[in-house]
């Protein structure tokens, strides 16, 4: 027989449901981190925007708001030139890291079947990243100079008779250096996405008679796009914020926005540096937003 | 007997989909209660709501007459045995068992000798002697099961929830553990709420069986009653031992797809109208055999027989294509052989049928 | 489609690619064995010697080439890296723990944290210098630079811990709660030991990032330089092979760190495998 569902004998507490403490816990766990970021990341950036509107005298700045620094920036050839150089170098390095890194990612992510081997190769590519950034920049000097390694080797095997001068202290050296330093960020995400392609899809295409280029264009490339976009975002963020590589390898010839900021701060022209900073921020924001539109990352990842 | 757990109109939905749609139940003290429900019926959700890992959307939960909905799980005093055991992988067997005793907020046992003593006792009770210092990866599935049990029993809860505790064990072990679980529970004197999707397990283990169907308790009774008197056609279906015909009552017969079936059995009001006859209440006779007045007769074609130890399950196809199953216990008669596709009469007593209106 | 031909071609390309990645470092290493003090930072190698290594440690007779200012800077970089490692790991673990449950505004907070690794060092360094100037605070490596290092490394620690928690089976925590153990103690005695490999990787990550970080530190460290800043200072001046020798040593140091990390991870992975086996049984 069914059980009686009541127990009238024991009085039952009909008190309010006990309140939960869970929401508080989440708040307190997040508070320190969020506060840290607000104070030491958001506030400095906002400050930079604010200061870009301050009045700049020769050695001091005053909180009087003015657009003078902005006008100077956009009417001066040097600074507009720096902006243009930044955009130009960013595009060139982005394309070159993609072109240089993609085939390697293709090999490691798609053609190497052994998982251990492909992981080992990726680790091999990543190890240089773990060494000091400055040392890696520096290491290009003895490579590219007139008496550097490349010239020596090329002369020894007789390809050239005179050392190639333009290798060092030029825009080319900056591009070569940046490509080498940042292409790892392309290889990683692309290899990852390629590794996720189901090999049977490619086999099916081969069985249907598709040639390599066809398969590449219609299957491999589209499926690797999220990796390309992620890599592009990494590379873009780093290249746009660059100044050390251009300083070390171009001998002051190449002026990126980053370099402008550094030199302006050096001369204590804070408001002006702030203007360059805000321009750089807007440029970066636009680039990242545009890249995120290429592929709906949330869906693909 | 006082109720150790009471659920009143408990609701819980996930992203708009209801998992518990108004649970009302009462569990007595010192009993073995099994909860039967097919997958997707919400049985794990119910267990997690009782334990406090999920909060119900509405309703009341009373444990030992105290309202506990909203109380965090570590303050409820209800034990939980997980389906995957959830043993602490970085602690030994003895350390796993002692963990609750030494680390609980209320009344932790600080005297190492007392802890050792109680751990020793419970290890003896569940049958793990000699394995105290083993790592959790060095013991078998059945032993892990016992560690999970011992770990919670040593803290002397008033109720233990078991989420498909025998699901991860092989068939042999499962049989053995059934008896052991009952023995252990009796020795400890606490209520076990044992959730399972297997009807044989639920019937075998529970003093009381709760049947969960679409987020509601469809029936709550003892095993015998459930087996003979399922409260609805749906519950009968879960029991996997009833042939069920849809249709409607018309006059003094039940109009089913295979013709009118005379009434005379128990009539129950519940859900959709149906006519049910248990597998083992049906006799197989040649088509020309006589039928008594109090019997119901239909014809079917034989398909195959399945031998399952003490019984034979024979399958027939009815004229409308349905399958009809008959269970014959071998203690009653020698097994007969039936001709494949041969026509036979399936006969049962009117009063043995269950009619739902 | 000539699959094996393409595979071979790509394989050769990848080998060249790796040469491209390591080339400069190898050249650097070779040149660090240049003889000194006359030998310059270019080929040919006049004579192989360990002169510049000795020069680093001040073991050579004084010459016109000033030794690298590394003593104090090295200490500051290490101390700063340790401080950053501790703070950003704590923040990363607590934030990731918070993200285990859904809550309103989680998207905003997520991007706020991740922003820290996206914003270039020059910008945030500049902003911090401006803030310090306006508020009249002095810039020090242990103050203004330290907070920026944490801003940079905290998101990395956070993402590592998010990944670890994603794979973490919460039933062991629920088991502890059902035994009457309160959440704080459960975290200390159950959760933390099991996520420790992740915590270790987060710590190592943060240490390495901070140790090598310099664009943020450039404007924010005040007078006393960290190691990368000291190195950067030598860029504009003539470069001598002593910097190369330093580069080799610092690279070896990074490799040693990585090696330690790999060993520790190997030990922890073995423990994780044991956990996985438990779930399968």
Automatic annotation (TrEMBL), chain A:
InterPro entries: MetI-like, MetI-like_sf. Belongs to the binding-protein-dependent transport system permease family. CysTW subfamily. Keywords: Cell membrane, Membrane, Plasmid, Transmembrane, Transmembrane helix, Transport. The lineage of its organism: Bacteria, Pseudomonadati, Pseudomonadota, Alphaproteobacteria, Hyphomicrobiales. The chain crosses the membrane at residues 27-53, 89-112, 119-139, 172-194, 215-240, 270-295. GO terms for cellular component: plasma membrane. It is found in: Cell membrane. The keyword Transmembrane helix applies. GO terms for biological process: transmembrane transport. Its main location: membrane. The keyword Endoplasmic reticulum does not apply. Coiled coil: none annotated. It is a multi-pass membrane protein. This is ABC transporter permease.
From TrEMBL, chain C:
Signal peptide: none annotated. Keywords: Cell membrane, Membrane, Plasmid, Transmembrane, Transmembrane helix, Transport. The keyword Transmembrane helix applies. It comes from the Bacteria. It is found in: Cell membrane. The chain crosses the membrane at residues 12-33, 73-96, 108-135, 141-165, 190-211, 243-267. This is ABC transporter permease. The keyword Transport applies. InterPro entries: Bact_Polyamine_Transport (IPR051789), MetI-like (IPR000515), MetI-like_sf (IPR035906). SUPFAM superfamilies: MetI-like. Belongs to the binding-protein-dependent transport system permease family. CysTW subfamily. It is a multi-pass membrane protein. Residues 74-261 form the ABC transmembrane type-1 domain.
